[in-house]
Amino acid sequence: MNSQHVSVLLQETLQALAIRPGGRFIDGTLGGGGHAAAILQASSPNGTLLALDTDPAALSRSRERLNPFGTRVTFVHSSFADLGRVAHEHGWRAVDGIVLDLGLSSDQLADEARGFSFTSLQLDMRFDGTRGEPASALLNELSPEELADLLYRYGEERASRRIVRAIVAARPIQSARQLADVVMKAKGGRRGKIHPATQTFQALRIAVNDELGALAAVLPQAVELLKPGGRLAVITFHSLEDRIVKNFYRIESRDCICPVEQPVCTCGHRATLKIITAKPIEPTAAEVATNPRARSAKLRAAERL
Description:
Blueprint: H1 10-17, E1 24-27, H2 34-42, E2 48-53, H3 56-66, E3 73-77, H4 83-89, E4 95-101, H5 106-110, H6 135-141, H7 144-155, H8 160-170, H9 176-186, H10 198-209, H11 211-225, E5 226-236, H12 239-252, E6 273-275, H13 285-290, E7 298-304
Parallel strand pairs: 1-2, 1-4, 2-3, 4-5
Antiparallel strand pairs: 5-7, 6-7
Helix pairs in contact: 7-8, 7-10, 8-9, 11-12
């Protein structure tokens, strides 16, 4: 069961993490295991890795890929939202680097039973199919107002109300393929390379998996786990994720977060991070040419003070 996923910004991530032999690292989004394998290779002969993923299928695939590294890697089925608890349970403290690759993997898109792709006959979209409600439940049970708000907030879809009117008229929607067709017609057909339903699918996936909530939860936990000089590297794929990471880094790199008009500091905040990437690192044209799904990726890295 080989992974089809191609890791994005791989060399850039290794450089951002400043991998060294014998280091202790955490991959909070194991996926196809590409970043994990590269970290283990670069930290040879005795570097170790704690690998988390909320998707059981991803864990299974990556166990095969990372089998040659033996006991140097520890696998855990968990969301990175619980990173602090998981790390402490496995005795991981004062780590050298943490990577979070927030993209949807090619393996998940290719799995027709998951409902992530526009052609799927399913409509689930859960990373962990044993937890929470599938996308079909949200799509068919939310009120029109709630659904339109969801598409606008998580998909930044300006045509959210028009799309929702079409969805409500077509209920019950039972497959990703049906949903994609409904959205395409509501938006007046396909123009350009980006499918008209992209933002709708993004919004549903984010809501089903509470992706933004998990990201906001993991960042302070990651900082707590890093030892001084340890690095945090986060790869985002849309503006909502990138904004959360950018703002977190900005706040945690400042000694004072009081309002600028306040003459005296009363917050008591002290910087915990030094930003390594003044601007986000983006894929080269060559990488995008070979892996089009990399086109929207942005890497931001910071170092624990």
